[in-house]
C-alpha cells in the first residue's frame, strides 16, 4: 500500500455493497472504486449511477464495473456477497451458501495477485471471515470482518436515547458473535469517561430501573426488526464499511469492534469473533484484551462455542483447527 492512489473493490453490488459504495464516494475515501458482481449488468448499472454523484461531492472517485482479474493492486477488497436470512432464519443459517460463495470468489481474487486487506460483511460474518482467511492464505491481520461494529453502534444509540447524550460520547462494545449470542461488555461501557453502571446507580430515581438484558436483547433483534419491515438492512452496515475503510487509509489507529482471528487473545485460538481492535493502514495492529467479569467471560466462551459448532458444518473440526494452528498466526 505504498502507492498514492487509494483503490477499493466491492464484491457484491446489492443493497449493502451499493450503500457502502455511496458512503465511500460521498466521503471521498478513495480515488478509484471497482464494482464486481455475478450479475455483471447490475455492477455496470450501479457504477454508472454512482459515477453521476461526483459533480455533487468534494472529491473525485472514479467508479467502474470490473472483474476479479482487475484486483491485483487493490488496497481494500470489501466482500458483501451472500444471501440474507429468510424469515425464521438466523444469520448462522446462511452459512452453507455463504461458504460456497467464498470458495468460488476468494481463489479468483487471489489469482489476480491481490495482496491487500479483505474487509468482509457477508453473514455469518465471523465464520465467513475465518473461511476467507483460510482460503486466501493472507496473514490474519489483513482479513477483517465487520463483526460487532454495527451492534456496538446500535448499543450506543439505544443508550444515548436513555441518557440523552450524543452516542459518540459513549464508549462500549458488543462482543462475540454478530448474532444472537453476542453480549455487551457492561464493565467497560463509559459515558464521557464515567462508568455506565455508576451513572445508572446515581440516576436511578430519575431514570428508573434500566433493564440491561432488555437493551442487549433489543440490540440483538433490531436487525431483524428492520428486515421484517423493509426486507434487509444496508445503510448502517454500508456506513460501517466506509468508516472502517477510511480508518485503514487514514492509518487512524481507531479502536473498533471487529471480527478478528484470535491466536491466544482471551485464551482463544483458531476462531474469528467480535472483539475491540486497533485498525491501521496495515490492517489490525492489536487486539484489545478487556478484563472481562466472570459473567462476561462465560458469555464470550458460550458465544464462541456456538460459532465453533457451526464452523464444523463447513469442515473446520477440532483436529483440522489444530493442524492449521501454525499457519498465519503472527501479526
Automatic annotation (TrEMBL):
Residues binding NAD(+), per UniProt: 12-17, 37, 42, 68, 121-123, 146
Pfam families: Ldh_1_C, Ldh_1_N
Keyword Oxidoreductase among record annotations: yes
Lactate/malate dehydrogenase C-terminal domain mapped to chain residues: 148-313
Entry keyword annotation includes Disulfide bond: no
Residues the record marks as active site: 178 (proton acceptor)
A GO term for molecular function: L-lactate dehydrogenase (NAD+) activity
Domain Lactate/malate dehydrogenase N-terminal: 7-145
Catalytic activity, EC: 1.1.1.27
Subunit structure: Homotetramer.
Descriptive protein name: L-lactate dehydrogenase
Natural source organism: Thermolongibacillus altinsuensis
Amino acid at each position: 500500500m505504498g502507492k498514492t492512489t487509494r483503490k477499493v473493490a466491492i464484491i457484491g453490488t446489492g443493497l449493502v455493497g451499493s450503500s457502502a459504495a455511496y458512503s465511500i464516494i460521498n466521503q471521498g475515501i478513495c480515488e478509484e472504486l471497482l464494482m464486481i458482481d455475478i450479475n455483471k449488468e447490475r455492477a455496470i448499472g450501479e457504477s454508472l449511477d454512482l459515477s453521476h454523484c461526483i459533480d455533487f461531492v468534494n472529491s473525485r472517485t472514479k467508479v467502474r464495473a470490473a472483474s476479479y482479474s482487475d484486483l491485483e493492486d487493490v488496497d481494500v477488497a470489501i466482500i458483501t456477497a451472500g444471501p440474507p436470512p429468510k424469515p425464521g432464519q438466523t444469520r448462522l443459517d446462511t452459512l452453507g451458501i455463504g461458504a460456497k460463495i467464498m470458495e468460488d470468489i476468494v481463489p479468483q481474487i487471489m489469482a489476480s495477485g491481490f495482496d491487500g486487506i479483505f474487509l468482509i460483511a457477508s453473514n455469518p460474518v465471523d465464520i465467513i471471515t475465518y473461511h476467507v482467511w483460510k482460503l486466501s492464505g493472507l496473514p490474519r491481520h489483513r482479513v477483517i470482518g465487520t463483526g460487532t461494529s454495527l451492534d456496538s453502534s446500535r448499543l450506543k444509540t439505544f443508550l444515548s436515547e436513555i441518557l440523552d447524550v450524543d452516542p459518540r460520547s459513549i464508549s462500549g462494545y458488543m462482543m462475540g458473535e454478530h448474532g444472537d449470542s453476542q453480549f455487551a461488555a457492561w464493565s467497560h461501557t463509559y459515558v464521557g469517561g464515567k462508568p455506565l453502571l455508576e451513572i445508572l446507580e446515581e440516576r436511578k430515581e430519575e431514570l428508573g430501573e434500566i433493564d440491561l438484558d432488555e437493551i442487549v436483547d433489543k440490540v440483538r433483534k433490531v436487525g431483524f426488526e428492520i428486515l421484517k419491515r423493509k426486507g434487509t438492512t444496508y445503510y448502517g452496515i454500508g456506513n460501517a464499511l466506509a468508516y472502517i475503510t477510511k480508518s485503514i487509509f487514514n492509518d487512524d489507529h481507531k479502536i473498533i469492534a471487529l471480527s478478528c482471528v484470535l491466536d491466544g487473545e482471551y485464551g482463544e485460538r483458531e476462531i474469528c469473533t467480535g472483539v475491540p481492535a486497533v485498525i491501521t493502514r496495515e490492517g489490525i495492529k492489536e487486539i484489545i484484551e478487556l478484563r472481562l467479569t466472570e459473567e462476561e467471560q462465560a458469555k464470550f466462551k458460550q458465544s464462541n462455542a456456538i460459532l465453533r459448532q457451526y464452523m464444523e458444518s463447513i469442515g473446520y473440526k477440532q483436529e483440522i483447527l489444530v493442524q492449521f494452528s501454525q499457519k498465519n498466526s503472527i501479526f
